């Protein structure tokens, strides 16, 4: 599942970063984790089955590696 989260990050990272820059903000790990979490929830049944706290911790841990 971590590999799929990294794949989603690679798909959305630069667009999110550009959108944040356009608004005069910087992309933070929490914002990235929110976006990735939404994508993963839609795509992955195993991810949906996890309790929210575990899903959030996992996506945030990986997002911090990118931001």
SSE run = HHHH
End-to-end separation:
20 Å
Strand portion: under 5%
- Given helix and strand content, the structural type is mainly alpha
Task: Find the count of extended strands (DSSP E, 2+ residues).
Answer: 0
Whole-number mean pLDDT: 96
Number of helices: 4
What coarse outline follows from CA principal-axis ratios?
elongated
- Give the oligomeric state: single chain
What's the helical proportion of residues? Answer: over 70%
Taking pLDDT < 50 over at least 5 consecutive residues as the criterion, the unreliable ranges are none
Q: Let me know the largest β-sheet.
A: none
Structural summary, described in words:
The structure is a single chain. The radius of gyration is 12 Å and the shape is elongated. It is built from four helices and no strands. 79% of the residues lie in helices and 0% in strands. The protein is mostly helical. The protein starts with a helix and ends with a helix. The mean pLDDT is 96.
Blueprint (SSEs and pairs):
Blueprint lengths: L1 H21 L6 H15 L1 H5 L2 H12 L4
């Amino acid at each position: 599942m971590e590999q799929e989260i990294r794949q989603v990050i690679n798909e959305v990272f630069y667009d999110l970063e550009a959108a944040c820059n356009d608004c005069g903000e910087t992309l933070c790990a929490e914002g990235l984790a929110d976006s990735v979490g939404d994508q993963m929830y839609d795509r992955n049944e195993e991810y949906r089955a996890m309790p929210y706290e575990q899903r959030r911790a996992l996506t945030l841990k990986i997002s911090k590696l990118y931001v």
